[in-house]
Amino acid sequence: MQLLVIFAVIACAWSAPCVHDNHADLTEEHVINMVVAALDSNSDGVISEIDILSYFVVKFDHNGDLAIDESEFVKQWNQEFHDEIAFAQHVFHHLDAVENGQLDISDIDPLVKRADTSGDGVIQTIEFKTYLELIYDAC
What we know:
Blueprint: H1 2-15, H2 28-39, E1 46-47, H3 49-60, E2 68-69, H4 70-81, H5 85-95, E3 102-103, H6 108-115, E4 123-124, H7 125-137
Antiparallel strand pairs: 1-4, 2-3
Helix pairs in contact: 2-7, 4-5
């Protein structure tokens, strides 16, 4: 399963060139920890579908249509995590699993499948960290 995730991340890397740079000089590890902490707001070690939806809809859906388009995502990712715009676009394209130009409910199941390397249907925080590391490494 982990091999499939690696192939999926590498395949996305071909389609979205990026430059990894952080204008606040935050390390990759720091940003990944920030993202995971934001998603696992109750600190239970699990990133649930509800955690993903509630975080991204509340923070990233600026127009309230329950879908996050690339411009909304890039703007918020850049403001919140200080990664440069090209890298935020790179992350967006990895999270847009159904490749419809927006993040919405249809991306949740594919995201769980990509990040859940144990195959138990639950994303542990360590699994999501690994998933984000692969996205960073694919840049």
